Amino acid sequence: MAEAMVSNTIQCEFESHPGHLGVGGHHHGGGMHSRSVREAAISALGAGETISEVARKVGVSRSTLRAWREDPLGRASDDGCPRCSRSSLDGPAYAALLGYYLGDGCLSEAMRYFALRVSCDATLPGIVADVSSTLRLLRPGMKVFHVQAPGVIVVQAHWKHWPCFFPQHGPGRKHERPIVLERWQREIVESHPADFLRGLFHSDGSRTHNWATRVVAGEKKRYDYPRWEFVNRSDDILGLCTWALDLCDVAWRRPRVNAIAVSRRDDVRRLDELIGPKS
Which of 67, 135, 139, 235 has minimal CB crowding within 10 Å? Predict the structure, then answer.
């Protein structure tokens, strides 16, 4: 887990900045709009609405709308984005990165791009390497930066198309707004639930050893056992975690309002096999 201390140290939820894009947000540059905004605008134009009417409706400049009308598929500006070009997407890599984003990631807006940041515990270099390699699988040749803070390494990558990948991006912290996957995202997670769980548990999860006592033949005995736990303040994200665990036939329980626990021996062993060690 990138512990609560980690998130508080770097204040990863840059999405709370009022200038950041939401699913319906906009920016006065043609490449900075979310895909859903672009598709809604093109649909309205195709239905016969004027450029001025659509500009008022979706908050996009008329010059950008004219460019979209000339290039409705975005081929001139997709910049290698598989979502804009409707080309194939690395499913396992995306499922893992989605988990990392929902766990300890955020998007923030710069002048010409968005910065995707995933906070990682500095004592877990394997997680840092996993996030970095996952980014490069999604976009070969992408420059990945490691920004150090006390106890943290923030894995960061810049691209104007990150909102295409994460339509859940919006104003406010993730636990303060609905987090609902789009159909294409659900289909990817359904095909690759183990990768999604890896991103969740390796960001906001932990593997610990617990103990309990039982009275056997009149004698109190102590039992030690391993346990995975995923902690998040968003009910929606917790629900996505339990959904993916169900897809993998891993039993879980909810010991606290903000936590999901996997503690039965066989289920811990299965989750170990599915997501690998957190190191």
Answer: 235
